[in-house]
Amino acid sequence: MTDFDAIDALLAEARQEVPLPPAEERRALREELNVSRAQLAKVLDVSASTVGGWESGREPSGQVREKYAYFLEGARTKLAAADPADPVDSVDGVAHAEEETGLDDVDVLSEPQPCVLCGRPARHQVEGFPQHLDSADCAPGDPAQPVPPAPEAAPTGPAASPARGVKVVPAGRRVQPADTPDLIGSAVAAALDQHSGDVEAATAALVKRAIPDAMALLDDSRKGGRYDVVAHPWLPDILRKQSARGADQIWEARPKWTRPELPPGEHEVTALDVNGAYLSALKTHLPIGQLEHSTGGDHDRRRAGVHLITPSDWDHDAYLPNPLGSRDEPGPLWVTEPTLRLLLRLAGPKYGLCDPPEIHESWTSGATENLLEKFRIALKDARDRAIAEDDEVTLEYVKAMYSKFVSTMGESNYNRELYRADWMHLIRSQAFVNLWWKAHRAYDEGLTVVRAMGTDELHVAGDWRAVFAEGRGVTEVKVKDVYTVGTVPSTG
Amino acid sequence: MPERNIEFGKYGARGIKGHEAVARQLDALATFIATPITTRRGLLARLHYLTRTEHARATAREAGLTVTDRTLRAWLEERRSPSKRNLEKIESAYRTVRRQNVSRYLLLRLTREGRGTRVEFHPLNQSQVPRPRQRAVEYRTLNVRHWDRVVRAWAAGDDAALDEAWVNDVVVDLGSQWGEYEFVTAIGFAA
């Protein structure tokens, strides 16, 4: 029932928005102060047409709403001080409405009649339908009364629609709810149904079909996308496996680093585990089409691929892992886009940790970060929901989907739909780069980085809770192990 | 350009014929024995494949492995080793038989009960063509439903028939610009 709690929280939050006077009053307040729209817009840091929109019924939200409310409140106080009989503050609702509503079809009722929207007595009518003009008055307080449909959209307050809106698409002359099939949810439901609720059997069945399902989800997520997923491009030889079990020539820069020595004393080391490292790494600059060869030392930020570089020396091995991982032999090597970007960034003025690498040649293509973005978001949302609902089946399924998707997108016979060895390397490297940045962040915040290894493991000593949030979300870390290193210095 | 190319590569374009790329991809999907025939392991694997059943022996003989059973037995028991010419014969017979055996299942997978397979056309390489002669040839995809002629020609190892089937059954469906895709860098599809 946690989802109801979440809805309650959302409701409580939604009601905390600052109430604003009705739309027509906003304009009157501004005009009586002789403030132009442009002036107000400049102060609020929005465009003049936005202010115009607010004055004709749209509702600002967030921080700018508070600022706008402050302005309106200030204007009202100022006008009230200048003219005590100002109609804005007048108790006489009839006179107030006559003057303030700029609409032609609004009439003032001598006798209050039940509002068509909320059923409580209202003093105005629009085109013959009694209703409240201010959405703050018009709160549906009495659920016993049926709510007839309003012929004209009355200004709806933020409190009136707390739930997420329904996405609609045009269909003929009408609209219909947008077709957003929940592929993951329906697959899980079908599997549970088929195995009559046997969680283990359903999980096994789902994990077995994770790869084709991930491909279907990818296809679905590219609907209306700008770029096609090019699944079988020609690949240069450096990306081809040299033998059946061999590797290709790309260095993914997998970190495998242990700090050579710790400061004296006893240290409590915490092994942290990054959640869903490969899931987060799906957001990386991926080459869209076939890779093209180029030589020369330039790096084009709009392209991505693999690069032959000679890295510069790394002098910080004592406290930070080498961004290239534990490389045994010196000399030029093929690295991927994320690694190169990391090296270039570290060579930049902000960090200045090393010299820029020398780029000899590159196989690149025009790149985008958004190719797998919808796919990633769909998986991440399903994962978050599964964690919130404690749904182990979905969690396992999602995990199998993204991990197998990444591991089989190269030359794997388990997934022949996608032959992108380059993407596989780039995504893995991105995961390693993300881990490196976590290590750097820990170092930057004063923690002692002890180990960085694999895809997602980081050992730190110190108060890591001040740096990283603990949890199961993709931005959080979880504790794998806590151990003690060193001895207590003997006090002599 | 609605027709076949007459002088391909005159201005430096590079590519292979579409049907060659298709045959390459189909071969990759058929997965032959990876170990080369020059090694003992590779040779024995091929010989076993060709002599496992009476039917396999017959097809191997049809595919050009015209040696006596006694010789085959001698090769299998490693009393003798095949000459260089016979090694070539074994290799070609093996590929032909393997293609024939696989083609039935490959066809089923490519047709996917009538839904067909999405085929990617990666255009020819124009990097060596002078700039004014370069043309915008895009990457194209096409869903191909009818594979039987293509797969039959590939299984028979008949290049001319494969070319004919590929161009007439598939490439023309790209529209009036199909001639730009007679030569390609690669043809990609899954099965």
UniProtKB/TrEMBL annotation, chain A:
Biased composition (Pro residues): 143-152
Disordered as annotated region, ranges: 137-164
GO molecular function terms attached to this record: DNA binding; transferase activity
Gene3D superfamilies to which the protein is assigned, alphabetical: lambda repressor-like DNA-binding domains
Tree of life domain: Bacteria
Family annotation (Pfam families): HTH_3
InterPro entries: Cro/C1-type_HTH, Lambda_DNA-bd_dom_sf
Compositional bias of kind Low complexity: 153-164
Keyword Transferase among record annotations: yes
SMART domains given in the database record: HTH_XRE (SM00530)
Domain HTH cro/C1-type, residue spans: 27-79
The name this protein goes by in its record: Dihydrolipoamide succinyltransferase
Automatic annotation (TrEMBL), chain B:
Protein name per UniProt: Transcriptional regulator
Organism the protein comes from: Streptomyces pseudovenezuelae
